[in-house]
Amino acid sequence: MKKKTETVATGRAYGGIAHEDRAAERRDALIQAATQVFGTVGFRKATVRSICQQAKLNDRYFYAAFDSADHLLRVTYEHHAQRLHASLQQVIQKQGEKLEAKVAAGLRVFFLFLRDPCAARVLMLEVMGVSAETDATYQRNIFEFARQIISFVDKATQDALGDHDDQRIVGFALVGAMINAGTAWLLSDYRDSEEKMVHNCSQVLLGTYAYAVKQARQSTRSARSTSATRTKR
């Protein structure tokens, strides 16, 4: 009697699960394993064999999904970056128009994410300086976080921050500040409470936005005063 299941090589169902689904499951298992291995021994000490052992998979499945350990690092980093980005977007959209509430909610999501030390190390430490391609992946995601940190303030505040380039630079600076604060928190083994981290980082973000608005208002008043003086003349 003909067997109902086929081998993986045929591309057909194996054990009642489609080949594509099994491949996706193995890929996800390798990403989860890489998170644990990169987040403990570090990328530079990690081996393909150790990752496969963590995932409980044969080495051949690794090379069916990834070109190299560097490739897996990029994919693992993007997995966590996109997960954090989506979580931030979701919680911010649930807040009202009050900026303070948006900032606090976003920071709580960020610091809660960092409570997973392996994912946090992949996101903020292990990805740095590995290769030009990995650096490009990191920069692309940092740019998206920078856009996000500017996007949840109102249009008036965005305008107060300056033009597109000014907003981009401020966004990078704020993301960098949050990453540095988060990294220090991680490396201190979470010495301070999440609420303390949220409170103090909120001051950095809200202070930047408030300063920009104040400067813009002063500039507007100065321009109006100059215009009025010229009109009198």
Helices and strands, with pairings:
Blueprint: H1 19-38, H2 48-55, H3 59-65, H4 69-93, H5 99-113, H6 117-126, H7 132-151, H8 155-161, H9 164-187, H10 194-232
Helix pairs in contact: 1-2, 1-4, 1-6, 4-5, 4-6, 4-7, 5-10, 7-9, 8-10, 9-10
Show unreliable segments.
Answer: 1-10
Order of helices and strands: HHHHHHHHHH
Query: How would you sum up the major sheet?
Result: none
Number of strands: 0
> What's the average pLDDT?
88
How big is the Rg?
24 Å
Number of alpha- plus pi-helical segments:
10
Query: Cα distance, first to last residue?
Result: 104 Å
Walkthrough of the structure:
This protein is mainly α and 233 residues long. The chain has ten helices and no strands. Helix 1 packs across helix 4 and helix 4 runs antiparallel to helix 5 (99-113).
Annotation keywords:
233 residues, mainly alpha, 0% strand
Q: Could you give a quick summary of the protein structure above?
A:
This protein is mainly α. It has helices spanning 19-38, 48-55, 59-65, 69-93, 99-113, 117-126, 132-151, 155-161, 164-187, 194-232.
